[in-house]
Amino acid sequence: MIWLKAADIVLTVLHIGLTLFNLTGWAFNRLKRIHLVTILLTLGSWVILGFFYGFGYCFLTDWHWDVKEELGEEGIPNSFIKYYLDILFNADIPADTVDVIAIIGLVFALAMTVIKNRDLIYRK
What we know:
mainly alpha; globular
């Protein structure tokens, strides 16, 4: 049981960190290549794995929710972002609204990381 609580904490920190890095990592030149990789992996999970499991599927969320369910938590939404925004704002934010926000954030971050990594495409 204690290892499940530890796993929940580790997955929470990792997930929040990755989400924040996906949104802002493009802004740091030293991290732009790593950011490109994490955005592409996230996009791949959402779209490619999403083809099999439903659009927006995140394997990290799936693992995390398995841990939370083992800890006895019930009624967990499909979205990690919704789960923590609901906690942060003490509200039940509509899932569709959170999905739109997440997609806008991902598209913006993807566009920014492509711009920041354009030297990979346009070598002089």
